[in-house]
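hey can u run this one w/ glutathione bound, need the structure tokens asap thx
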Amino acid sequence: MRKLYHCAGARSMRSVWLLHELSLEFELVTLGFSMAALRTPEYLAISPLGRVPCLVDGDVTLIESGAICQYLCERYDSAGALHRAPGHAERNAWLQWLHFAETIAVHGASLVQQQVFVAPADRSMVVIKLEARRLRKALEVLEQGLEGRDFLLASGFSAVDTAVGYSVHLARELLGLDGLPTLAGYYARLAARPAFQRALDQAPLKAMKDAVPGFA
Ligand SMILES: N[C@@H](CCC(=O)N[C@@H](CS)C(=O)NCC(=O)O)C(=O)O
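ok here u go:
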């Protein structure tokens, strides 16, 4: 049985969302978003860094959300509806956005770490300001990249929108999308997708906020 390990509010939402876009069946294993829940010997035996997502698909185990995205597409999207194979005119753009997703995710993760997991007395305003600025810059790059199109690829929605879209979803909670009208329109199109809504039901940011007092 295919299994996806995840935490509410975490990058694993990308994989949950993509699994739904691909209409693949899977068991969702929801772990608490805490060291205690993620560093158990049982979970470390599956995912040695104790992070999420982690996909177990038969004899394949993968622990990077970008790799999970590419693997799921190459294995289950043979028609190329959600990915662009080598040689396709949009291959390089597809790869670029897949990896850009991690660049932008790092800033959101740093802010979540500071604002959610670090005790108020230990927070660094320098880190918060710097990461917020760097996240905003990455959002501005998306604003430009989306000019004149509905999704990241000119041809339409693809798996890289699940990868990047998760970070837009998180950034909207952390910073808002004021002054980014193109990005706000993009987010509305993503949020209207049934697979996004199913993923959100299973991996809500709200659950993370409720679980951790002081989320700002
Ligand atoms: N590059 C990895 C990052 C995985 C990652 O750091 N996930 C976070 C959740 S967004 C996590 O598990 N954090 C728990 C921890 O760092 O202990 C990926 O994209 O899958």
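The mean pLDDT is 94. anyway lmk if its weird
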